[in-house]
Amino acid sequence: MATAQTATAIEQQVEDLLAERLPEVDLRAVGVGGRAGSGVLTVVIDHPVRVDHDLCAAVTRVLDDAGLRDRYAVEVSSPGPEPPLRTTRHYVAAIGETVKLAVDPGCVPGVGKSVSGTLTEVSDEALTVETPAGDVVVPRDAVRRARMVKGQACGE
User: Fold this and answer.
1) Packing angle between helix 4-21 and helix 53-65, nearest 10 degrees?
2) Domain ranges in the chain?
3) Domain over 88-148 is classified CATH 3.40.50.720
4) Which fold has domain 4-77?
5) Residue 45, SS3 per DSSP
6) Residue 62 reports pLDDT greater than 80
7) pTM, whole model, 2 decimals?
8) Long-range contact pairs involving 57-65 (C-beta distance under 8 Å, separation at least 24)
9) pLDDT, tens digit (0-9, with 9 covering 90-100), for 93-148
10) Which one, of 10, 109, 27, lies nearest residue 68 by Cα?
């Protein structure tokens, strides 16, 4: 399993590569799993027009050219109906939508490992989520994973 520092460095490398070679591609998520030498690099992308096989193949080529396929099996996919939220731009676009945030336990008073509800405010420091129990302010650095949730009302 990759360390958090290694995963962050790989995420930054992938973000830089795509910004340089395929700037129209929106990097939604990067994950590294498995053991060293047999790990899997999972990359979730979006595009203003659409994500298709050709775009996934182009992203895979960029990662291959950078040597990442020498170290990892690479899986590139679209975000699907519940897109991951990673950047401030992603969160701002999700204001008014139902979200689910996986958070570091103990970092948000009165909250366990996750917060679900309507995203109402976004800043560089925190996210405000309206839940059935009231507004919850979640520090951005406490968010481990976030995604928009389609087809659910707040509190379901």
Assistant:
1) 110
2) 4-77, 88-148
3) no
4) GMP Synthetase; Chain A, domain 3 (3.30.300)
5) strand
6) yes
7) 0.81
8) 58/22, 59/18, 59/22, 59/25, 62/17, 62/18, 62/21, 62/22, 63/14, 63/17
9) 999 999 999 999 888 888 889 999 999 999 999 999 999 999 999 999 999 999 99
10) 10
